[in-house]
């Protein structure tokens, strides 16, 4: 008898551009996993509200992210928009009651992002949503009973929290209702900022700290050319900045150039300018292909919007089924 196909779930926030950290850390895996699994991928607009946001841009950012995801190869039938599936937020309330305050307060992303907001002088905007969003994330994952969750390394702690919530729920209801979702990483789960390789590539750190995958060629080359290479180098050890450029080259699957430049590094003859040029060439090649595909997709935005509303409605059926079962199990009422 054939085994049922396993489910893959992952999400991304519509907070602006998609960068090479998102792509090489997670989205590249989203695309390839579609060949072997039932995949569900979300544009999580409720999560994008947890940091200060612009109400005039939120909806458009979600559509832009959809075009971007499709341009890199995510199939539209696998995509949903979170605010079109209200069962996620309903389940997240239930999960709030299965998650301890102490566990949630240990989340490093809350501390890091809270610090960012504070440094920008907006302390009063550190919202309860920012504190609580890992619980919503647990609902995003568990509502589809996902087996695998392809994410970057920065999400490991949140995945652990999802498993803890699932375990607590199973314990309370006295059965193995939720399965434990497993994290899947790419070979490059943590791409660093080229401007400050001690940090991950990220949008919230500011413009210098991420490279947009649809970047115009001249600016992309400039960003790679100005990558920090030598700061913090220990004798005989590769600096974080140089290692990051090698990671990017590897992620672009340019192994011949990668291996020959690694040889030069080992022999002490590597010129950083050559490493930067090879990295920029590889990123530009990829980015040009994405831009071309994106132009094709955005030629008919209405059709895409229609398609995504349809796929969200289809994906919602599974979320409704899980929520109904959860409510039954814990003594809540279902409408019908
Ligand atoms: N630097 C990274 N390296 C590897 N993977 C990464 N991811 C994010 N940054 C890196 C992975 O991308 C997926 C989507 O992440 P997100 O929803 O947090 O998207 P984002 O808001 O676009 O990510 P940012 O820019 O990194 O946001 P901030 O600055 O808000 O933290 C996830 O699987 C994530 O692991």
Task: Give structural notes.
This protein has helices at 20-33, 58-71, 87-96, 101-104, 108-119, 128-142, 156-173, 217-225, 240-251, 255-267, 272-298, 301-330; strands at residues 7-12, 38-43, 79-81, 148-150, 182-184. It is mainly alpha-helical and 336 residues long. The protein has two domains: 7-188 and 300-330, HUPs (Rossmann fold, 3-Layer(aba) Sandwich); 207-295, Tyrosyl-Transfer RNA Synthetase (Orthogonal Bundle). It has a three-stranded parallel sheet with strand order 1-2-3. Helix 6 (128-142) packs across helix 7. The mean pLDDT is 94. The protein binds adenosine-5'-tetraphosphate. Residues 12-13, 15, 21-22, 25-26, 151-152, 154-155, 189-191, 200-204 line the site of adenosine-5'-tetraphosphate (AQP). Adenosine-5'-tetraphosphate binds next to helix 1.
Key features of this structure:
single chain; 336 residues; three-stranded parallel β-sheet; binds adenosine-5'-tetraphosphate; 2 domains; Tyrosyl-Transfer RNA Synthetase; two-stranded parallel sheet; globular; Rossmann fold; mainly alpha; 5 strands
Question: How are the secondary structure elements laid out?
Answer:
Layout: E1 7-12, H1 20-33, E2 38-43, H2 58-71, E3 79-81, H3 87-96, H4 101-104, H5 108-119, H6 128-142, E4 148-150, H7 156-173, E5 182-184, H8 217-225, H9 240-251, H10 255-267, H11 272-298, H12 301-330
Parallel strand pairs: 1-2, 2-3, 4-5
Helix pairs in contact: 2-11, 3-6, 3-12, 6-7, 8-11, 9-11
Bound molecules: adenosine-5'-tetraphosphate.
Adenosine-5'-tetraphosphate binds near residues 21, 151, 152, 189 and 191.
